[in-house]
Each structure stands twice: as C-alpha cells, then as structure tokens.
Amino acid sequence: MKSLKPLSIKFGRSYEVKSSDGEESIENPLMSDEQKSHETPKRFDMASLPEETRREALIRRIDIPVQLSRILILVFIIWIWETRIIFKGFSVFGFDVLPEIIPLFQGVPTEAWDYVTDVWNEKLFWHDFWVTLQEALLGFLYGALSGFLVGMTLGRFKRARKVFSPFLIFTNAVPKIALAPILILWYGVDIGSKVALATIIVFFIVQIPVMAAVSGVDPDLDTVASSMGATQLQKFRLVVLPGILGPLFGALRLASIYAILSVVFGEFLASKRGLGQRLLYQVNNFGMGAAIALMSILALVALFFNAGIGFLERKFLRWQDDTTRGNVVSL
Confidence class of residue 220 from pLDDT cuts 50, 70 and 90? Predict the structure, then answer.
C-alpha cells in the first residue's frame, strides 16, 4: 500500500514533505493554480541586464559631475589667490586663522608661471630636477623593497618577529629628521645622504603594514593549502600575497610621497644640486613666485608617483570595486 506523506499547513501556506525513497509528493488540493504559481520563486537572470558599452564604462569612471566640481574648486582657489584676497587675512573671534601677509612675502600663480617659463629651457634646472627625482626614486625603491622583505619575513615567522621587533620599534621611534645631519656627515652632501634618509623613512612605512597584513592572514587558508600539498612558494603566491596587496599598495602610495619629502628636506640641509636647494635659495631671497612654482613641481612629481602606483594597483586588484582601488589618484 502506498504510504501517504504528512501535509502541514502553517499560516495559510502548504508545505510538502518528500520521503527519501524518491516517491512522489502529495500536493495540497486546496491550493489554486494561481497560488501554486506564486509559490515558485523567480530566479534573477544576470544575462537579462543590458551589457555596458566601453563608452558608458568610460563615462561612469570619469564621473563628469565630480570632475566639474573639482574644476570649479580649482578655479575658485586660483581666483582668490591671484586677486590676493587670501593675503588680506581672516580672523575668527579675534584669532587669526589666516594672518595678513605683507606684499614682500606674497606670491601669486602668474608669478609662478612666469618662473616656469623662464627656467623651462634652462639646462641647470633640469639637472636639479633629475637629481631630486633620482634621489626620490632610489630611496623609494630601496626602502620599499627592504621593507617588504623584512615585513614578509617577520610576519611569516613568529619567533623571528619576537626577536627583532624590539630593535625595529626602537629604531622607528628615533626621529628620522634627527638622523639627517648624521647621514650627511657619513655619506657627504651628494645624493647618498638623501637616498639613505629616504630609504630609512620608506622602510618603516612599508615594513609595518606588510608585517601586520601577513600575520593577519587567515590561518585556516594556510592549513587548507598545506593539506592540499602546496609548497611554501605556492602558499605565498596563492594565499599570502593576495591577502596583503591592499595594505601593501596603500603603504606604497604613502611612501612615495614621503620619499620626495625626505629628499627635499635633506637638500635643505646640505646639497650640491636639487630642487630642494633651489627652493631654499628662492625663499631666502624672497622669490615667493618661484618658490610656489617649485613646490608645485614637487607636488606634481608626487602626483605622478601616486598615479603609477594606482595604475599597478588597478591591474593587480581587479577583483576590487573601482571606488576602493587606486583611489589616491582618481582622474
């Protein structure tokens, strides 16, 4: 005799109970065809969405309202700067938020542009530019590479981290600016002292986040990879590296800026050539327009550094959303 399946009705809806032996279930005869059609959920088909064209994707990434807002803000800043309104001072409750600047110490964008056009074809200017760029690039590469390797090693091996962490913390606590005069005595006034200073600063900016990211990788993933016979190199490539790319690129973007700041500071103290030495000369001679031009050039160099790192981040982290990768420089 064919066994009947129990049928339970709860809150006006019927539930079928299927047996494990594959027998057909008994439907509720009280349900109408319309109710049965509503009982079956409709699955969302991703293929039904319209495919985004390349032009639409480009417009979405550019985000025209954001770009227009940036242009308006830039135009406003240049206007209050060029008309010297910003130099008239601004106070709140008797406190000078922006003090009044005397004409001798004022510099406007047109004066900065005049300086750029004057030195554009000057070979000595491009020599200074190359010296500063070379110092920043070498300091960034040496510091980032050594910081990455040390951070990976200490993050991966707990015993090594326990041994070396007190020494690294003590070294990191030393004011890096205080090391600059000592480095100049050791390496001289040439590019070596600036490269050494940039390397030390960049090292700790990269080493600390990498070590924290490696030590924070889910140990279950490592256990699963080991159980599947993965080698140490495979675990590094497939488990560790994808988990630390986000913090690594964030540290690299910050380190690229500090590499330029450190070499410019070193050039302030003692240097044969460089944009920092040229900037210090212009400030000492009250050439504020030229000083603003040089600071803008240094800022553009840092911007291009960040743009290059952001480009690499978008290539390596394609799985992330556009709003979360490479967003330090978002053009």
Answer: confident
Tokens of 301: 């160099």
Task: For residue 330, tell me if it sits in a domain.
Answer: no
Q: Could you give the count of Cα atoms lying within 13 Å of 183 in the half-sphere of its Cβ?
A: 26
Query: Minimal CA–CA distance to 260: which of 304, 206, 293, 291?
Result: 304
- Nearest-angstrom CA–CA distance, 29 and 106: 89
In the predicted structure, residue 87 carries a pLDDT above the cut 90: no
Average pLDDT over residues 189-201: 93
Confidence of residue 135 (pLDDT cuts 50, 70, 90): very high
User: Looking at the structure, do residues 183 and 204 belong to the same domain, yes or no?
Assistant: yes
306 and 168 in a common domain: yes
State whether residue 120 is helix, strand or coil: coil
Pure H helices in 40-122: 54-62, 64-82, 109-119
How many C-beta atoms surround the C-beta of residue 190 within 10 A?
A: 15
Domain span holding position 279: 107-315
